[in-house]
Amino acid sequence: MHLKRKGSAFIVTKTNQLQDLLLSRVRRDKLPVTLFLMNGFQMRGLVTGCDLFTVVLTTDGKQQMIYKHAISTIIPERPVDLNPEEDVLPTQKAGRSPTESRFAGG
Asked: Name one GO molecular function term (predicted).
């Protein structure tokens, strides 16, 4: 990820399209995942949201926000097709290039 300043906003050039694609697919398909954290702890549930820094995992109706830097491995319940042509990423819908997101900054 690279930050570039443009006016009062930051442009984030993303180099993590594969993780975005995987998280998007398991969320869209409501596919259960097992997350292994850096400390070895396992978490199971549905990915119900994610952004550049966090993943929201829902287990038994309870939401947990996990920072991506704490995640070691994500294992979907079944294989996920990672063909990027199937999805239009949210940044493309907003009229931005697929590798840029905007963040307000000071």
From this structure: RNA binding
